[in-house]
Amino acid sequence: MRIIYVYVLVFLPALVVQAQTNIGEDSIRTVVLQEVRVSAQQKNQQQQLYQFFRSNQAATTEDVLSRLPELSLIRRGSYGMEPVIRSYNSGQVNLLLDGMRIHGACTDKMDPASIYIEPVNLSSIEVRTNGSSFLNGSSVGGSINMKLAEVACHDEPVFSGSLQTGYHTAAKAFYRSLNLNYASGKWGFKATGTYRKSQNYRDGSGKTVPFSQYEKANYSLHAKRMVGQDMYVKIDLLADDGWNIGYAALPMDVGYAKARIGAISLVKEKGRNGWGKMEAKLYANKVQHSMDDTHRPDVPMHMDMPGESVTSGMYVQTEKYIGQRQQLTFRADASVTSLHASMTMYQPGQSPMYMLTWPDNRQFQSGMAIQYILRIDSSSQLQVHGRADRSSFGLTSQMGKDQLAVFGYAGQHSSFFIPSFSVQYSRKLDQHFKASASIGVNGRTPTASELFGFYLFNQFDGYDYIGNTRLQQERGQQAELTLSWQPAKLNLQVTGYLSRIEQYIVGKYVPTLSTMTIGAKGVKMYENIPHALLAGVEGSVVYKPSSNTILMATVKYAYGKDNTGAALPLMAPLRNIGSIKQYLGKLWLQAEMETATAQNRVSLVAEERTTGAFSLYHFRLGYQTRGMGLQWQLNAGVENIFDSFYREHLDWGNIARPGRNLYLQVGIGF
Fold first, then answer.
1. In 3-state terms, what secondary structure has residue 67?
2. CA nearest neighbour of 502 among 470, 468, 533
3. Beta-carbon contacts of residue 40 (< 8 Å; ≥ 6 apart)
4. How far apart are CA 224 and CA 234, in angstroms?
5. Do the beta carbons of residue 72 and residue 89 sit within 8 Å?
6. SS3 letters for 643-662?
7. What pLDDT, on the 0 to 100 scale, is given for residue 203?
8. CATH of the domain at 466
9. Is the dihedral of CA 33, 126, 368, 418 positive or negative?
10. 426 — alpha (psi -120 to 50), left (phi > 0) or beta?
11. What is the number of helices (H) and of strands (E) in the chain?
12. 3-state DSSP call for residue 40?
């Protein structure tokens, strides 16, 4: 206890600054998830992040995302948490897998693309904010790109792999993972498999939280074939199956959530005459999802709610170096997504009633992006980002058109053209101090739910939602200022940002419409309001006083209001995480603290609840050694040491988070 209190008192003041974790672009953060080849300049920073974000080898992709200062997670259950960047929700950010677009198949956002990916599938997670995200698509909030792991080819055949298993006490959860790699001079193969099973967890009051269980399996296969000295073809196949998934904050659970993802890529690492890396990719994916209420007690009317998403696309990206000071990156991409979701209501004593909640619809998207970097001199750099996107939406079934005809839909297509542009200037003010400023304009199209949604019940505010095909695209103006200080052993950064979003999309109550969902408070239709304002600050520090000690802290705060000055919903309060890690030979120890202030500034329109402050303490340890020709690894720890009863502000419903959790993870590598 004394050690923990000393740690808190000494380290807490450092929680007002943010670590520089990228080279060249201040609005990009990359977390490395496994051993990969990196440049000497990046290696130290990325390995530091790896040690912190992957210290718990059983962590899910959501656990890793939640550690980043730019990100928060909207939680509706233990599974399927929705990542948001700086309080921009999933419709305002791009969530990609290795540059591929994937659309969830759930009308209630219970399956963001991140739930179909395991950390063992990935080499890194890249978060881009503001204008630096244009290579990944148009958005007002940025992008998250989860990069798939590759196997490196070797002159001599190499076979390697790892096996891990673990257990968590709070939810009596089991985890198993297998990773196999084979590489020769021209061929490389990687196969992974992961299985997780979690029961209902126990909160800090000792009560079991019903409908918080889940079970899933994930499989992937990666193959690479060298076709030249620095050119190769790679194929990636990934399957993910989840079932018996509980959502404690929602009136329905999930019977199954499935994803099938495939891609083929041609990559040339280096071209001639100043050309850098070139990549071309073709991909396709299919997601199936079904909401289920058969295990819920006292259901007035049983409903089946399946959904399906099918996406195919391509992109080409290349780099060009112009002399020693200029770099140009070009990308062209296109995709098509088809969506379908329905609901069948089984009324006692009557025939089933069927309707489309996502009337069959299709989106065509195409875009071109360019990034230009000019190193003016040894102290300053200019970056220019630009993109142009064209998207069109339309219904593809007569039944869907007939449903929306009652709201004035006449069968027309909705088309959008979105130009985006940003400029960033960075300058080294002295040997250790650097400043960077950026401004830009961007935009995003409405989502399929906002355009075509048909009586989508939102448990957060208790209203049925209806789409509006007359919506306009959101347009954003953004500014950002970053200050960083990097003397020896210390890496410190603070970022402030301000965004004004015009034609901001919200749901507005329509008193003349009747509800469809039993118990719904009313019906809201998506509308554009004149504007909304989002602002905030992020900060962190990485300090390495010796080769055996690392200290890290992050802090974030967001503020949002609409054109009337009213608070926007789901704005996280001030929150920080601090860690100190000590290496003792083959053993490492880590103490960690998480705190959040109360959030009393809430959206009255959405009938949002206030949230109390909380503080959590965790302790982790790891031990690694070699024996019998194998690499042995042990990870253990206790999270929420004092068994605190709490919930985070972005958690839906009044559902408490897990209480004290002890975990043990054992791994073998060869």
1. coil
2. 533
3. none
4. 4
5. no
6. CCCCCCCCECCCCCCECCEE
7. 96
8. 2.40.170.20
9. positive
10. beta
11. 5, 31
12. helix
Cα angle value 358/563/459 (rounded, 5°): 35
pLDDT score for 52: 63
What SS3 class is residue 214? strand
Under the banding of pLDDT at 50, 70 and 90, the label for residue 508 is very high
Query: What's the burial of 208, exposed, middle or buried (CB within 10 Å: 0-12/13-18/19+)?
Result: exposed
Going from the C-alpha of 45 to that of each of 76, 148, 347, the distances in angstroms are 33, 20, 59
Q: With bands split at pLDDT 50, 70 and 90, how would you rate the model's confidence at 314?
A: very high
| Domain extent for 429 | 2-669
Span between the terminal Cα atoms of the chain, in Å = 38
Q: Which residue has the tokens 């992937």?
A: 220
Q: Token pair of 121, please? A: 């599938």
Q: Find all residues with CB under 8 Å of 6, minimum gap 6, and list them.
A: none
Q: What share of the chain is helix, strand, coil (3-state, %, to 5)?
A: 10, 55, 35
Which token pair is 42? 């990046």
Please choose, from the candidates 129, 119, 98, the residue with its C-alpha nearest in 3D space to the C-alpha of residue 50: 119
- The single residue listed with the structure tokens 């962590």 is 59
180, two tokens: 């196999």
* Of the candidates 419, 327, 336, 409, the residue with the CA atom closest to the CA atom of residue 372: 327
Task: Give the CA radius of gyration of the chain.
Answer: 25
d(CA 275, CA 290): 47
64: helix, strand or coil: helix
Name residue, tokens 């419903």. Answer: 653
- Beta carbons of 84 and 73 less than 8 angstroms apart: yes
Q: Strands 94-97 and 143-148: what pairing?
A: parallel
Residue with tokens 């939406």: 393
User: What tokens does 229 get?
Assistant: 């000295």
**Strand locations in 490-628, DSSP E?**
490-509, 523-546, 549-562, 575-584, 587-596, 614-627
Q: Judging by DSSP bridges, how do beta strands 587-596 and 614-627 pair with one another?
A: antiparallel
Q: Which residues contact 582 (CB under 8 A, 6 or more apart)?
A: 548, 549, 588, 589, 590
Task: Please state the domain count of the chain.
Answer: 1
pLDDT tens for each residue of 581-627: 999 999 999 999 999 999 999 999 998 999 999 999 999 999 999 98
- CA quadruple 82, 83, 87, 90: dihedral sign: negative
* DSSP single-letter state for residue 470: T
Instruction: Specify the amino acid at residue 415.
Output: S
Q: DSSP letter for 80, please.
A: -
In the chain, % of residues over pLDDT 70: 91
Q: How confident is the model at residue 15 (pLDDT cuts 50, 70, 90)?
A: very low
Grade residue 221 by pLDDT with cuts at 50, 70 and 90. Answer: very high
Task: Please report how many Cα atoms fall inside a 13 Å half-sphere around the Cα of residue 608, on the Cβ side.
Answer: 21
Q: Would you say residue 326 has pLDDT above 50?
A: yes
DSSP SS3 for 568? coil
Residue 244 corresponds to which tokens in the numbers above? 């018996």
**Strand blocks (E) in 109-204:** 122-128, 143-148, 158-168, 173-183, 187-198
pLDDT interval class at 143 (50, 70, 90): very high
Three state DSSP letters for 102-129? CCCCCCCCCCCHHHHCCHHHEEEEEEEC
Phi-psi category of residue 170: left, alpha or beta, with phi > 0 → left and psi -120 to 50 → alpha: alpha
